[in-house]
Specification:
Length: 222
């Protein structure tokens, strides 16, 4: 399940006890002892070989051919550069994820969402109100109504999900370094920004990319 659905190994520590509480009449569920360390070992050392063989068999199917040479023309360039929207898209993604467990008012108050405090409990919504998705919320509701699972087990599960959200947004912020002024300079290329006329001159662009001065009339561009 973890490997097929790309789920975090940390989920096992909560899922196995939860299964034991849900399926009280199952001997397998009651005797199951599986932690994240063991689950990781099984996936990496046992299932990975089976998955590798399966992928090889699919790639070796009759009628399928793959080039060994990398197409450098498409790998190195593009007719539609998107660097200017990278930062806005990452900020949008971080807002969407953090809104699943953080107060909306706090998120809206952050002038720079990438510098928000994603671990401060004061900025969190109630643990029972975090958003996991429509199907997940529906399943949790059914479990509460049709089983004798204690509320503490549900809360532990929700805390695990919140920990996953925190780790996810933190990793995203660390992975994308927008400290280089280039991202503030090229944002003018974004039509949404350009139409607001907040940037009155392209001088910063010409300073950062002086080669443009040889091919573009700066006054006309402004």
């Amino acid at each position: 399940m973890l490997a097929s659905n790309d789920l975090p190994f940390l989920l096992v520590d909560t899922l196995i006890p939860l299964c034991a509480n849900v399926f009280t009449d199952s001997k397998i569920a009651q005797k199951m002892t599986l932690g994240r360390t063991k689950a990781m070992s099984i996936v990496k050392n046992i299932l990975s070989e089976a998955f590798s063989d399966e992928i090889v068999n699919l790639l070796c199917a009759q009628g399928l051919y793959y080039s060994i040479i990398m197409d450098e023309t498409t790998n190195k360039s593009s007719e539609k550069p998107l660097l200017h929207i990278l930062k806005p898209e990452v900020e949008k993604l971080v807002k969407q994820i953090s809104a699943n467990y953080m107060k909306i008012d706090y998120i809206r108050s952050c002038k720079e969402i990438l510098k928000a405090d994603f671990t401060n409990l004061d900025n969190f919504i109630d643990i029972k109100n975090i958003y996991l998705g429509i199907q997940a919320d529906k399943s949790l509701k059914e479990i509460k109504e049709n089983s004798n699972i204690p509320d503490s087990s549900i809360v532990d599960f929700l805390r695990t999900c919140r920990a996953f959200y925190i780790e996810l947004v933190t990793d995203i912020v660390v992975r994308f370094d927008f400290s280089d002024p280039i991202f503030d300079i090229i944002k003018i290329v974004n039509p949404k920004v350009a139409q607001k006329f907040e940037v009155k001159s392209l001088n910063d662009v010409f300073v950062r990319f002086p080669i443009l001065c040889n091919n573009v009339d700066q006054q006309q561009a402004d």
